[in-house]
Write a structure and sequence with these properties.
Radius of gyration: 26 Å
Low-confidence stretches: none
Number of helices: 12
Mean pLDDT: 90
Shape: globular
CATH class of the largest domain: Alpha Beta
Strand content: 15-25%
Strand order of the largest sheet: 6-9-10-13-15-14
Structural class: alpha+beta
Number of domains: 3
């Protein structure tokens, strides 16, 4: 098991939301599970938003009314004989808090109150916070809502809360009881954790090692000759998980989240062959006239909660390492280990 506090760190690094994490003070103890953690983050984050003032935007409304406001919709007013009733149909802009950002937040708070296994105290807190968002419509959240969000530069904190809301949405399933939800702990899903682990490692280096390395995902071109250039379109894309680079050094890291770091072959532990083939391809095909590419370092990085591995091989001028990082330790040890791996 990875401690809940460490999962929270992984998420915040993966989202690039470390500053926002510090602004949301969340108490985590041995009784806190992932669902309760996310609920606490939204409760405290919502309170902070309400204190500062929630986002508003101008919305266009069209209503029938006495008098005139904004633009008169003449065609509709004539068609419905509103002028004879001394009324008009008008379109006008008005400042409103009932916008998508707040609708997603309030709807997520509401969905959490109907999620199985949520701490009862947190459920009561969620209900209280919901009531403080006056005039916000609840919506049935779907993936398209998150894709259509437009968040301005001064709404960074909303961006963090939307990350949390999207995670809750993707991890929630309808319960047998209509209107209720089941929360699926994504930390048990190897595919989702692999995506999280990769994003976490990349953004950790981007933030913590920015004075030493430039961090990126590098697209590597296959160095295959071909009689027809059109043949190249059939080659698969080759892109690293993490590339660290400075004037003198280049490191390619392939981050792999596996419950079992090593594969078993006749009861003996072996490195996953496909992982080695992939890393070796990166090292061979990234070589160019730049001297540092001739001796670039390759690292296979795995998380572990038990046995540590620190293996070293060489191929031509390349150093190849198989490293592990224990996610079941204090965060300070994780941070220190990640830095040591590349220095």
């Amino acid at each position: 098991m990875i401690p809940i506090e460490n999962i929270y760190y992984l998420l915040c690094y993966a989202w690039d939301k470390l500053d926002e994490k510090e602004k949301v003070s969340v108490t985590i103890d041995s009784e806190t599970n992932l669902l309760d953690l996310l609920a606490k983050v939204l409760i405290n984050g919502s309170k902070r938003l309400l204190k500062k003032g929630i986002a508003q935007n101008y919305m266009t409304y069209t209503n029938e009314m006495k008098g005139v406001k904004g633009k008169i919709e003449i065609a509709h007013s004539l068609k419905t004989n509103l002028f004879q009733k001394k009324m008009t149909c008008c379109s006008y802009d008005d400042l409103s808090s009932d916008i998508l950002l707040n609708q997603i937040l309030v709807s997520t708070l509401n969905n959490l109150t109907r999620t199985k296994d949520l701490n009862k105290g947190l459920k009561a807190d969620l209900i209280k916070v919901q009531r403080m968002f006056v005039g916000i419509e609840r919506i049935k959240i779907n993936k398209k809502h998150f894709k259509s969000l437009q968040i301005s530069r001064n709404q960074h904190f909303y961006s963090f809360l939307m990350n949390v809301c999207e995670l809750i949405h993707l991890s929630s399933l309808p319960d047998e009881k209509e209107g209720n939800f089941l929360f699926m702990n994504f930390s048990q899903d190897e595919r989702k954790m692999n995506q999280l682990f990769e994003a976490f490692v990349r953004n950790f280096y981007k933030v913590e090692m920015k004075d030493i390395f430039q961090t990126s995902r590098e697209t590597i071109l296959w160095q295959f000759g071909t009689p027809k250039e059109s043949n190249r379109k059939y080659l698969p894309q080759m892109q690293t998980d993490i590339t660290l680079e400075n004037a003198n050094k280049k490191i390619i890291i392939d981050a792999k989240y596996y419950k079992e770091t090593m594969a078993l072959n006749y009861d003996k532990e072996k490195i996953h062959s496909s992982h080695l083939y992939q890393l070796n391809s990166y090292l061979l095909h990234q070589q160019s006239s730049d001297p540092k590419t001739k001796c670039a370092t390759g690292i296979l990085l795995y998380p572990t909660i038990e046995e540590e591995f620190d293996l070293h091989f060489t191929y031509e001028e390349h150093n190849i390492f198989i490293k592990t990082i224990n996610l079941n330790t204090h965060w300070s040890h994780i941070s220190k280990r990640l830095k040591e791996i590349v220095l």
